[in-house]
Specification:
Largest sheet: 6 strands, parallel
Number of helices: 25
Distance between the termini: 91 Å
Strand order of the largest sheet: 10-7-11-12-14-13
Helix content: 40-55%
CATH topology of the largest domain: Rossmann fold
Strand content: 5-15%
Structural class: alpha/beta
Shape: elongated
Number of domains: 3
CATH class of the largest domain: Alpha Beta
CATH superfamily of the largest domain: Thiamin diphosphate (ThDP)-binding fold, Pyr/PP domains
Number of strands: 20
Length: 690
């Protein structure tokens, strides 16, 4: 081939992306060819001219982040990763969507080198990008010093019509504009087509005006094949420091396909062998061989390797100088980015004295958080406008907010002032957005992010929680107001099925502590757990703080379930199992049963997941198979309890909605009383021994 000029090399490289993607989709007989065909030029411009990354070290901390929020177009990303030199072979491109390949149907973090976050459910990646940008802004504010900008990178994303339609994108975009995240830049694949129709059937929003209203900087590129116009738009976006940017690029889904361009038929299905042939001919690409990668294009893409090595080397030299000047900050930064905990982080976790009145576990949680926060700078998060109720504000840690928005109380609600160095995030009433933003912070690295709301509103967060579990990210969810004891707010606010919903998510640890000291151990476990999200389920009402000299240590929480109180004679006839606020009921019932010559063991079971992970020997020591009379007590749906109570056991729970009334009335009417627990226990014992 004759020597190519710059424009010819650009076009050759763009078509290489297009047809690697098309051939992979066609070979798999599954996938989305339309997006790579239309969006290849903008992706090419970003990856070859702007994106700062090192393919040989995908986890370099100061790399730019790229999120393919339109995850259905995954072959676009895989083509870019292979071409620029990541550890992803051409053979893996050929194995797209196949068993155990590194190129699954939607991008998955931890599987494919260079994939920053798991995307697929539309809108999730959009929100993850906001979390990534928050992480960058906070770390820069905390660690950068004059002459040493060791945290200085952009977050880019490619988003689709579907992303912008999903409500989670609206929540995330609104907050991003409020926070003035100037290093957040999104390319919008504005192709006017969805999976089943043109967008004019479902969405005629003026996206530019909509995002301007959110406080974003917007630009439009009318020709998605105009690489130079895209280049100029990206330059302008990078120069805009006060607002996140949305670049609306008018593309054509399935570009080049004679029959399927601009049609939903190019969206979710392969083009078909004949249409692939015609598309290649239409764009001047050889029909054979398949997976053709011209040497000129590959060499051009692989320039990312020396560029990346040079960029990281320059950063490493700068960081070495920074470490010499600011050794403590450098040590803390490196420790955070490795995900390690500082020595003595838990030294000030309180031990709560026995107290029959006790305290709300949400209050105990707040005390623990504020005890560990000063020694754990990675802990950062907030609530969905519920700090006064969830007790999750970090006192004196400042509020994360643009310093340009310091109106009103300039000290902020946490008493530490407004700035990007603040650790209290005010998500507003945006639970879904909060969930995806927390995931973005987690995948960035350097954070133990937490988010808080009432347990009932975990429903709004469930998609993001599920993805945190899939990605094996350390995210902490603080869910308060955990039962019908919420009281007068009524059925809409009283959680019933939410515990069962959360427990159904694989790889999520759900912990419902029974008192202040179990709450302290729950937080200890949440912080020490790597590779799993943790949900803490906390009470609105006071619960007794148990006398741990009389009962077993709350440390047993870390094993999921433990013998809290053994039968007086050491030979239990039955087992009472309870979680959270119902544990104190079980303790009182044990005493009353003993007066009636019934020996019962009380087991506190704050976490099914942690208990199931124990050895069979331990599990049998807590729930001996020979003691088959078991009564579980939990103010929630009974679903799933059969595995612990067995065929001869029963559950006092709620398989119906609550009502609006004071908490004591509801608990009495629905059977969460000592008298009812004793009555049910005696009846069960009689039945099983008849």
């Amino acid at each position: 081939m004759a020597t190519l000029n710059a424009a010819q090399l650009d076009q050759l490289s763009i078509n290489t992306i297009r047809f690697l993607s098309v051939d992979a989709v066609q070979k798999a007989d599954s996938g989305h060819p339309g997006l790579p065909l239309g969006a290849a030029p903008m992706a090419y411009a970003l990856w070859t001219r702007f994106l700062r990354h090192n393919p040989t070290h995908p986890q370099w901390s100061n790399r730019d982040r790229f999120v393919l929020s339109a995850g259905h177009g995954s072959m676009l990303l895989y083509s870019l990763l292979y071409l620029t030199g990541y550890d992803l072979s051409l053979d893996q491109i050929k194995q797209f969507r196949q068993w155990r390949s590194l190129t699954p149907g939607h991008p998955e973090r931890g599987l494919t080198p260079g994939v920053e976050t798991t995307t697929g459910p539309l809108g999730q990646g959009f929100g993850n990008g906001v979390g990534l940008a928050i992480a960058e802004a906070h770390l820069a504010a905390r660690y950068n010093r004059p002459g040493f900008e060791i945290v200085d990178h952009f977050t880019y994303a490619l988003v689709s019509d579907g992303d912008l339609m999903e409500g989670v994108a609206s929540e995330s975009a609104s907050l991003a504009g409020q926070l003035e995240l100037g290093k957040l830049i999104y390319l919008f694949d504005n192709n006017h087509v969805t999976l089943s129709a043109g967008t004019n059937m479902t969405c005629n929003d003026d996206h530019a005006r909509r995002f301007e209203a959110y406080g974003w900087h917007t630009q439009s590129v009318e020709d998605g094949n105009d690489v130079e116009a895209i280049d100029l738009a990206l330059q302008a976006a990078r120069s805009e420091t006060r607002r996140p940017s949305l670049i609306l690029v008018r593309t054509h889904l399935g570009f080049g396909s004679p029959d399927k361009q601009d049609s939903f038929e190019a969206h979710g299905s392969p083009l078909g062998a004949e249409e692939v042939k015609r598309t290649k001919e239409n764009l001047g690409w050889p029909v054979t061989p398949l997976f053709d990668v011209p040497s000129e294009a590959l060499a051009h893409f692989r320039e990312a390797l020396p560029r990346g090595l040079q960029a990281e080397s320059a950063w490493q030299e700068r960081f070495s100088q920074y470490a010499a000047a600011y050794p403590d900050l450098a040590r803390e930064f490196e420790q955070r980015m490795r995900g390690e905990l500082p020595a003595g982080w838990d030294a000030d976790i309180p031990v709560f004295p026995a107290d029959p009145k006790g305290m709300k576990t949400r209050v105990a949680s707040g005390k623990v958080m504020n005890a560990i926060a000063p020694k754990l700078p990675a802990l950062m998060g907030g609530s969905a406008d519920l700090d006064p109720s969830t007790f999750t504000a970090l006192e004196g840690a400042g509020d994360f907010e643009s310093p340009d928005r310091a109106w009103g109380d300039t000290q902020g609600s946490s008493g530490g002032g407004w700035s990007y160095a603040g650790r209290n995030l005010h998500f507003g009433i945006r639970e879904h957005g909060m969930g995806v933003i927390l995931n973005g912070m987690a995948v960035h690295g350097g954070f133990i992010p937490y988010g808080a709301t009432f347990l009932i509103f975990s429903d709004y967060m469930r998609p993001a929680i599920r993805l945190a579990a899939i990605m094996e990210q350390r995210v902490v969810y603080v869910f308060t107001h955990d039962s019908i004891a919420l009281g007068e707010d009524g059925t809409t606010h009283q959680p019933v099925e939410q515990l069962a919903n959360l427990r159904a998510i694989p790889h999520l640890v759900v912990i419902r502590p029974c008192d202040a000291n179990e709450t302290a151990y729950a937080w200890r476990h949440a912080i020490e757990t790597r590779g799993r999200p943790v949900a803490l389920i906390l009470t609105r009402q006071d619960v007794p703080t148990l006398d741990r000299n009389r009962y077993a240590s709350a440390e047993g929480l870390q094993r999921g379930a433990y013998i809290l109180s053994e039968a007086a004679n050491g030979q239990p006839q039955m087992i009472l199992i309870a979680t959270g606020s119902e544990v104190s009921l079980a303790i009182e019932a044990q005493r009353d049963l003993e007066k009636q010559n019934v020996q019962a063991r009380v087991v506190s079971m704050p976490s099914w997941e942690l208990f199931d992970a124990q050895t069979e020997e331990y599990r049998c020591s807590v729930l001996p198979p020979l003691i088959r009379t078991r009564l579980a007590v939990e103010a929630g749906a009974t679903q799933g309890w059969h595995r612990y109570v067995g065929d001869l056991g029963q559950v006092i729970g709620l398989d119906h909605f609550g009502a609006s009334a004071p908490a004591p009335v509801l608990l009495r009417e629905y059977g969460f009383t000592v008298d009812n627990v004793c009555k049910r226990a005696l009846a069960l014992l009689e039945k099983n021994h008849a």
